[in-house]
């Protein structure tokens, strides 16, 4: 129930959707002559919201606390027992239709998987990603990654594919049950920087201690707080992503999936080097 409900809530509360729906609602009120003044006000407010969200640094302000929560760490020499990469970077429908790996803006997760596999040849490699679709039987991200492993330079025999999870909580719970990490082992968790707080919180709740390895940065750091966007689509796209993440953090805390509103690094978490061959971690 939680999964389909979350899809509906995110659809309605996604800023670009909400603002466009407000414009439509206002236009209908004006067209049918009911509450014309309110309808005009709704259209103007929504149009202003689209301008502000699209061109101003608003999305960057919302993203920065998420991305700055877990800094890029430096490898201190502690052996890496395993690496967990979360799904979200693979376009499953297009990949299946075109019979090749098609990545979205979070595709740096897959680049990091290949890079870390090379840098830590003895580490176990786990990829967590089922299908995010509502219909049963849809192809999973893990299936696509398994099919295209050779193209990424990943020996298929090294991959542990978790293909049932549909959200971050299930990523953590199902992966923990699959790899059964031992106490004292060091596992790296690879996901987008803006997603790392919720992901780490879920893994901690699952009893799986991980060291954060953030990738897929959408900001250049605090200096972006005064940067305006050249295209409204850039600001709206980023705002949609990070507002959804803030809602996810709150929902997961209320549901008991994490033990903190905004999970933070622990003093015992060993730093890891996030400067990889693709150069994406510090983009």
Question: What does the average pLDDT come to?
Answer: 89
Enter the CATH topology name of the largest domain: Rossmann fold
- Rounded to the nearest angstrom, the distance between the terminal CA atoms is 37 Å
What's the architecture of the largest domain in CATH terms?
3-Layer(aba) Sandwich
* Uncertain stretches of 5 or more adjacent residues: 269-283
Supply the CATH superfamily name of the largest domain: HUPs
> If helices are DSSP runs of H or I spanning 4 or more residues, what is the number of helices?
10
Q: Reading side by side through the largest sheet, how are the strands ordered?
A: 3-2-1-4-5
Strand content: 5-15%
Query: What does the largest sheet look like?
Result: 5 strands, parallel
| Coarse structural class | alpha/beta
Report the C-alpha radius of gyration, rounded. Answer: 20 Å
User: Can you tell me the number of structural domains?
Assistant: 2
């Amino acid at each position: 129930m939680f999964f389909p409900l979350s899809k509906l809530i995110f659809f309605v509360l996604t800023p670009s959707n909400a603002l466009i729906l407000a414009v439509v609602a206002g236009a209908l009120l004006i067209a049918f002559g009911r509450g014309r003044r309110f309808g005009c006000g709704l259209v103007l407010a929504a149009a202003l919201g689209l301008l502000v969200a699209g061109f101003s640094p608003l999305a960057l302000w919302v993203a920065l606390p998420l991305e700055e929560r877990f800094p890029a760490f430096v490898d201190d020499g502690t052996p890496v027992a395993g690496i967990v990469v979360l799904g979200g970077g693979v376009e499953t429908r297009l990949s299946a239709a075109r019979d090749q790996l098609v990545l979205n803006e979070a595709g740096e997760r897959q680049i990091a998987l290949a890079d870390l596999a090379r840098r830590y040849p003895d580490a176990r490699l786990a990829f967590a990603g089922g299908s995010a679709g509502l219909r049963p039987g849809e192809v999973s991200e893990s299936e696509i990654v398994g099919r295209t492993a050779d193209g990424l330079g990943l020996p298929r025999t090294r991959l542990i594919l978790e293909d049932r999870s549909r959200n971050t909580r299930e990523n953590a719970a199902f992966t923990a049950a699959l790899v059964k990490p031992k106490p004292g082992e060091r596992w790296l968790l690879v996901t987008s920087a803006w997603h790392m707080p919720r992901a780490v919180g879920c893994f901690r709740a699952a009893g799986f201690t991980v060291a954060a390895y953030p990738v897929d940065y959408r900001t250049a750091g605090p200096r972006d707080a005064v940067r305006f966007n050249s295209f409204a689509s850039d600001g709206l796209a980023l705002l949609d992503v990070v507002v959804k993440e803030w809602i996810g953090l709150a929902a997961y805390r209320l549901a008991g999936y994490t033990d903190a509103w905004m999970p933070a690094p622990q003093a015992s978490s060993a730093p890891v080097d996030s400067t990889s061959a693709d150069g994406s971690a510090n983009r």
